[in-house]
């Protein structure tokens, strides 16, 4: 198990500008998979809104660099290790469950150990984090849980059995939390983007281009976005803005929902 890193949590006026939008001043957020992609954008947006952010990722250098940039705290942990997950702080007002991974193979060839790993990181870890953080939210009478799901939490695609299973499970967990937390001032929602321009997706684009013998542009337009009305990848900052909105003061009655950011995929 890797040791959690605890840099000085106080923001430095030399590196962290004053919050442009102080709507989350005094709040604490915990973001998993925060060193890159959607998680990084969420951590930056929450910090800019005034929250102190716990940056959780196994990529030590990237996590520490981001924490320094936003005046947050880096926690370098392997989220597939339940013992490591249980060392994370339990006092967050906002939890963004974002960490994930992908493996593509037909069910009859899917490695069972890989399937189990994906469930641990993308289902068990959010459960463990919420099990520890919800009591504090209840005590304070306020909290926001935002689970970064996917269009694959609402729809299925072939060859992604573990990922689709995990995202559907995360959707279910989110709804249960919404019902249990409703009387405590705590909301729980999912954000369900289509394909986002992240390192994980860019690697998939390159892999499929090699597999199909076509250009990466054709992979995006003809393969990935075939079912999407809008033929553009989503930017991480767009997802982060949706997350920030759900964490704001005017969304207390929005809970148990799944916000589709899929370019019209689920309209079909």
Protein model, in words:
By secondary structure, the protein is an alpha/beta fold. It has 2 domains: 23-194 and 234-259, 3-Layer(aba) Sandwich (Rossmann fold); 197-233, no CATH class. Helix content is 41%, strand content 14%. The chain is built from 8 helices and 7 strands, in the order βαβαβαβαβαβαααβ. It has helices at residues 37-48, 60-70, 82-85, 112-140, 161-181, 199-212, 216-224, 236-246; strands at 28-32, 52-57, 73-76, 94-97, 143-148, 186-193, 258-261. A 7-stranded parallel sheet has the order 3-2-1-4-5-6-7, sandwiched between helices. Helix 6 crosses helix 7 (216-224). The radius of gyration is 18 Å and the shape is globular. Residues 6-14 have low confidence and may be disordered. Belongs to the short-chain dehydrogenases/reductases (SDR) family. This is 3-hydroxybutyrate dehydrogenase. Pfam families: adh_short_C2 (PF13561).
Question: How would you summarize the topology of this molecule?
Answer:
Elements: E1 28-32, H1 37-48, E2 52-57, H2 60-70, E3 73-76, H3 82-85, E4 94-97, H4 112-140, E5 143-148, H5 161-181, E6 186-193, H6 199-212, H7 216-224, H8 236-246, E7 258-261
Pfam families: adh_short_C2 (PF13561)
Protein name: 3-hydroxybutyrate dehydrogenase
Family: Belongs to the short-chain dehydrogenases/reductases (SDR) family.
Q: Which short descriptors sum up this protein?
A:
single chain; 268 residues; alpha/beta; Rossmann fold; 2 domains; 7-stranded parallel β-sheet; 8 helices; 14% strand
Q: Please report the first level of CATH classification, the CATH class of the largest domain.
A: Alpha Beta
Query: Cα distance, first to last residue?
Result: 45 Å
CATH superfamily of the largest domain: NAD(P)-binding Rossmann-like Domain
Strand line-up of the largest beta sheet: 3-2-1-4-5-6-7
Strand content: 5-15%
Q: Structural class of the helices, strands and pairings?
A: alpha/beta
Number of strands: 7
Count of the separate structural domains: 2
What's the Cα radius of gyration?
Answer: 18 Å
Count of alpha/pi helices? 8
Shape: globular
């Amino acid at each position: 198990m890797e040791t959690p890193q605890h840099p000085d949590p106080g923001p430095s006026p030399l590196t962290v500008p004053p919050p442009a939008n102080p709507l989350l001043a005094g709040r604490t957020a915990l973001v998993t998979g925060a060193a890159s992609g959607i998680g990084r954008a969420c951590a930056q947006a929450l910090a800019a809104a005034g929250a102190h952010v716990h940056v959780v990722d196994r990529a030590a250098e990237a996590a520490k660099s981001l924490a320094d940039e936003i005046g947050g705290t880096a926690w370098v942990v392997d989220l597939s290790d339940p013992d490591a997950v249980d060392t994370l702080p339990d006092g967050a007002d906002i939890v963004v469950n974002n960490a994930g991974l992908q493996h593509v193979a037909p069910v009859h060839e899917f490695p069972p150990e890989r399937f189990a790993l994906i469930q641990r990181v993308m289902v068990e870890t959010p459960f463990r984090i919420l099990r520890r953080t919800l009591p504090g939210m209840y005590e304070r009478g306020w909290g926001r849980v935002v689970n970064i799901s996917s269009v694959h939490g609402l729809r299925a695609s072939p060859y992604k059995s573990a990922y689709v299973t995990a995202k559907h499970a995360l959707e279910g967990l989110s709804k249960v939390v919404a019902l249990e937390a409703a009387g405590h001032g705590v909301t729980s929602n999912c954000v369900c983007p289509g394909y986002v321009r992240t390192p994980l997706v860019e690697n998939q684009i390159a892999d499929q281009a090699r597999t199909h013998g076509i250009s990466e542009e054709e992979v995006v337009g003809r393969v990935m976005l075939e079912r999407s009305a809008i033929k553009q990848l989503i930017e991480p900052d767009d997802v982060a803005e949706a997350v920030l909105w759900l964490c704001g003061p005017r969304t207390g009655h929005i809970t148990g929902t799944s916000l589709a950011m899929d370019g019209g995929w689920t309209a079909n």
